[in-house]
Specification:
Elements lengths: L2 H16 L3 H12 L5 H10 L12 H9 L3 E8 L6 E7 L14
Antiparallel strand pairs: 1-2
Length: 107
């Protein structure tokens, strides 16, 4: 990839980050502080910080899906949830945004 392409991709990525909703921003910050987390782990972390009203994963999972579509977050692994016993995705911030970023519905 050429230098100009890398620069324009980074500019596009930074522009998207500036237009995200509050919950999206919280999740990105939480992933910076706690990389390789599940939706439930992120919800628990944000709840402990008093940023969301409940530790329920439904406060984070829909936003993680939107951030994945935008190329900002990637599912990189899976592990067993200690609460449900089911296999769940592990997320981290994407190293670089994808070249074809999806539309992000802000809430």
């Amino acid at each position: 990839m050429g230098a100009i392409t890398k620069i324009t991709r980074r500019m596009s990525y930074e522009e998207i980050l500036g237009n995200l909703g509050e919950r999206h921003q919280m999740i990105i910050e939480a992933l910076r502080e706690r990389p390789r987390s599940t939706a439930r782990e992120l919800a628990l972390y944000l709840w402990e910080q008093r940023k969301i009203p409940s530790p329920e994963r439904n406060y984070t999972h829909p936003r993680l899906t939107e951030l994945m579509k935008a190329g900002i977050v990637a599912a990189v692994d899976k592990k067993r949830c200690p609460i449900t016993g089911k296999m769940v995705a592990v997320y981290k911030l994407a190293d670089e945004p994808v070249s074809e970023q999806g539309e992000l519905e802000l809430r």
